[in-house]
Amino acid sequence: MRHMAKSDAGQKWIRRWLILIALLVYAMILIGGMTRLTDSGLSITEWDVISGSVPPLGAEGWAEEFAKYQQTAEFQQQNFNMTLAEFKYIYWWEWGHRLFGRLIGLVAIGGLVWFLARKWVGRGLTTRLIILIALGGLQGAIGWWMVSSGIGETDRLDVAPYRLMTHFVLALIIIGYTVWLWMDLGGRTRMERQPVLAGFALVLAGLVFVQMASGALVAGLDAGRTYTDWPLMDGAFVPASYIREDLGWRSLFEGLAATQFNHRVLAYVLWAAALAGVALSWGKPAAKSFALLATLVTLQAAWGIYTLVSGAPLELAIVHQALGVIVFITSIRLVWLTRSPTAPRLASS
Hints:
Layout: H1 8-37, H2 59-69, H3 73-77, H4 84-117, H5 123-148, H6 161-184, H7 195-221, H8 251-254, H9 256-281, H10 287-309, H11 314-338
């Protein structure tokens, strides 16, 4: 295959590098979640790739950064009583989030340069790895695009929910693509193709992706703490405020009640589909993989309900997000396993 490494040693080290990238991206997703949950995302009001990696080094530097934050609507309307010590707490979360992103970039670019220097990669694999790095660069740009929506002359107290969702789903695409590359470079062959199971695996992965995007929208709107009763919402299956008069059809994406309700319903649909996948694959080689996904979806649904009725505290919410990413990776693995079988071999190009 054109997309394999040129040697066994190269194959081994590239796969190790991809595991490291996936772990770093996974950690980045969780750090990003903590940054959002601690309301730290708008604490740094500027973006500079080089100088921005150095935090304030003295009292004057901290005073300057705090003064910049005091110009934001978030400070003026919500955190106007914040002390410098409290500002430092949220600043370190955002600074750590950005620094970790730079670290991932260095690991990614440095790894590719090393592989090219060792002549371990041919044209096809090089292209795929460049795409991975380009996605990381795009993620950095979207991260600033997201943060900038809550800074400046605006009444917005948080980042724009649509932009937060875009930032999150691109992170999912990056980690999913990384895992896919890792599996492609492995020695394991896929299962014998069965079109029905392959199609169903793709549907499940799509549902997981949409559900995760829905969860990001809920998080961006802070809708998860709006209704904490279950299985009803505000005493009804469909809350009375599902469609708001001032939003109209935009309630589906901007309404607190609608976004949380949609997230709940999507969870039910995904859970039922995952169980259907187990039944559909019963007695076939893919059965264990479908059962693994269904088990994780069930755990995620149960944890989501527990998080909801507990009022979505920070520690429960971040575990919910962490488990969701694992569910997504498992769904990508299932799609890979059920595609047409291939016999991996080293590339000559």
